[in-house]
Amino acid sequence: MAKWKTPADCRYAKSDEWVRVEGAEAVIGITDYAQDALSDIVFIELPNVGTMLKAGERFGTVESVKAASDLNMPISGEIIAVNSALIDSPDKINADPFGEAWMIRVKPSNLAELDALMDAEAYLKYCEERG
Asked: Which of 6, 77, 96, 107 is deepest in the core (most CB within 10 A)?
């Protein structure tokens, strides 16, 4: 059994963000591997609704007792919702990174960018290579 959860309905960036397409929206968060590496998450900074960002651009920051990490867009799009519950309870990211702790919802501007991301199997292999 794999050490980290990697749902098959998500695509994964090398910077440890996941994206799941739900209808006309894409939901984005950080992976189980990332939250495990960061350990106890104590702070999150997220963008404003309406912000347009390109794939690879920074959309926020997550801080743990160990380190701070930039959050990067796996695909381009407009921020249409932010999970404000994480501002008061960033520890939810450690408990449920693929569910309750989604970070942003985006209106994608180019779904073809998903093809550049890893599927669950490739991402899990990538995590195992890094330890």
From this structure: 77
